[in-house]
Each structure stands twice: as structure tokens, then as C-alpha cells.
Amino acid sequence: MAEKLALVGIGKIARDQHIPAISADPDWVLEAAVSRHAGVEGIDHFEDIDALLDNRPDISVVSLAIPPQPRFDYAAKALKAGKHVMLEKPPGQSLAECFALEAMAKEQGVSLFATWHSRYADTVPPLKAFLAERTLKSLKIIWKEDVRRWHPGQEWIWEPGGMGVFDPGINALSILTEILPYPVHLSGATLEFPENRATPIAADLKFADPTGAVMTAEFDWRQEGPQTWDIEIETDQGRARLSLGGERLEFDGAPAIQGANHEYANLYARMAELVKAGESDVDLSPMIHVCDAFSLGRRLMTDAFQF
Ligand code: NAP
Does the predicted model carry a pTM greater than 0.85? Predict the structure, then answer.
């Protein structure tokens, strides 16, 4: 039987991805929306999580598509009410929040899924398999986009906990931590902060790879014109290039996959599996790199940013 689900935060990603993915999946039925300003036609609407929990005890799963700053309180209330919880990326505004939610889910015997949508692109498993059989020589992430185009008016990304350019950058880090056959750690970073903002507009990262491969990431929110979401890889047996944020994969310059986007369909399929199995999936390795960048990063001040 389909699980009854409530979606919290009816903003950009809820409309672009969550609602279509839930509607197309027979394992789910969208029963309620929680939003301060918006509703979804044909289903119950509640202004906050307390009203949802009081009025719809029959709903078993809560999916949180709100920004990271308010997410902990919503997730904690849902978990304490015995709901299974799905978290948009990043799973929290700090690591300790995520550890606390993980412990709560365990105590309540419910499923917690810290989603990383970019990992669920069709290109990621073949890229992981490619790397598993080769020795990495270098890996370069270039994630450069125009913040005005992709985050118009989103003030929360510039507030503490909003992560700035790491909001898209963590998607690349979620792919990195999925495809590598071993863990790496950050060895240095430079972060550029607009003089009027609390979060960075650009970041350069260097990683220490235990095999000696050269590994870097460049994130920038000031790129106008063509947008770049690429990972370029060189190994002892050929090259790979992931582009368009994971939509296209090439091996040695030849297209391997240029696919449709199934990321959110795959995320909801995974959540259905977790609920059925009574398990959680909380991998915080992308968050650890971001937190380490804030810890190790040399801070530079740059021009003020206005939308
Ligand atoms: P958004 O449109 O700015 O916000 C989503 C919704 O969250 C808003 O419409 C708002 O709904 C609610 N909200 C905002 N601030 C809140 C607060 N302080 N308390 C309670 N609710 C609040 O953001 P988004 O782009 O959808 O991103 C949401 C999350 O999804 C982020 O973590 C982001 O990293 C992730 N994500 C975004 C994208 C993307 O392409 N945009 C892609 C993948 C993942 P109401 O005002 O109606 O309550």
C-alpha cells in the first residue's frame, strides 16, 4: 500500500522536482503540504509542522524541502512524533544537528534519509565503476554558476547556515564522496566573502588523496554566460568527464551517457526502500568537507553582493 506523505516547504525545489516525482510514484501519495505562503491544489494545507502533526496523525512520512536553517526544528518534531523523515540537501546547517537527528531517528525506530540528489543521477554508478578499476591521477571539480539566475531573491543562502556557494558546491562534493573508492580529506581552502554577506560567493579547495592524486574544486557564483558543473578525471587508463551537473558522462571524449534526469524519482524510490526495510541512510561526508573548508579556509573579502 502507498505511504502517505507530507511535503514541507513549497518553494522552488518542491515544485520543480518533489511534487512531480511523488506524483509519478505509486509507492507514495501526497496527502498534505506545509507552507507559510503556498498550497498544493487538491490536498490538505497546514501553515506549520505542529498543525500537520496535530491534524494528520495518519501521515507516516514527512519530506522537508525547506532551507537548512529551519530544518532541524521541523525534522526533530516530525521524528519525535514517530514519522519517517526525508531531508533535502544539505541535511542541516551544522554537523551536530545531523548527528542529533540521526540519534533521534534511531531512538524512535523510524527511517531518516539525508538525501543527496546529485548522487542519484544515472551517470554516477558507471563513473564509480570506472574509478573502481583504475588508479586516479587527477580530479578537478569546476562548479561555476550565476547566483542571480539560480537563486533569485533567496536571502537564506547568504545567512549563517545557508552555506553560500557551497549550496550548489555540496552537490559536487556529494558526487565526489560517492564515486571515490576511498575517503579523502581537505588540505586547504580559500573562501571569498562579499563584504556585505555572511557566506562565501566563491571557494577553491584542495584535497589530500592517500594515493597522491591531485584533487581540487573550484566553486564560483559569479559566472555569467555558459554555466559549468563539471568533474574532469584522469586515471592510469583513460579519462572521464561528468558535465551538466551529472547529466552527461564521457569516457576518453566519447559520450557514454546523456540522460534524462531521474534524480528525484530515484530518491523517492530509495526512501520507499528505507521505510520498508526499517533503515536510515545518513552519510555526512559531503558536509564534513564543507565544514572543514570553513575551518581551514583562508578568508578573502570581495565586492558587496546585491541581487
Ligand atoms: P526556496 O524556494 O527559497 O525555499 C523553499 C521553501 O521553504 C520556501 O518556499 C518557503 O516556503 C520555505 N521556507 C523558507 N524559509 C523558511 C523558514 N525560515 N522557515 C520555514 N520555511 C521556510 O528554496 P529551494 O531552492 O526550494 O531550496 C530548499 C532546499 O532544497 C535547500 O536546502 C536547497 O539546497 C535544496 N535544493 C534546492 C535546489 C534548487 O534547484 N533550488 C536543488 C536541490 C536542492 P513558505 O514560505 O511557503 O513556507
Answer: yes
